[in-house]
Write a structure and sequence with these properties.
The structure is a single chain. By secondary structure, this protein is mainly α. It is about 80% helix and about 0% strand. It has 2 helices and no strands.
């Protein structure tokens, strides 16, 4: 269930951005024309800003989880090298 949670959050952020902006615009236009009110314009503006803010927060959390997963993998690899279970990666240096 929690495998690839970071990638899932980034994917969800993209969906929230697209659907949130579309829904805010659609709702704002419908309210503006049906009720002849300027509240529709406020929904249009603040709904779009809210969708962008939510998508940015979800994307940020997804990136943090992806980076954390990579750091844990590198730390495990470093511990194995220090313990002596594996050989350190060879460098491409020319020794003449």
């Amino acid at each position: 269930m929690f495998d690839n949670l970071g990638e899932n959050l980034v994917r969800a952020a993209k969906a929230v951005l697209v659907y949130g902006i579309c829904l805010a615009w659609l709702t704002g236009i419908i309210i503006c024309f049906t009720e002849k009110s300027l509240v529709g314009i406020l929904i249009l503006i603040f709904g779009s800003i809210g969708a962008v803010a939510l998508a940015a927060a979800l994307s940020w959390m997804g990136q943090v989880l992806c980076n954390q997963k990579e750091m844990i993998r590198l730390q495990k690899e470093t511990v194995k090298v220090l313990v002596g279970e594996t050989e350190p990666p060879e460098t491409d240096s020319d020794e003449n």
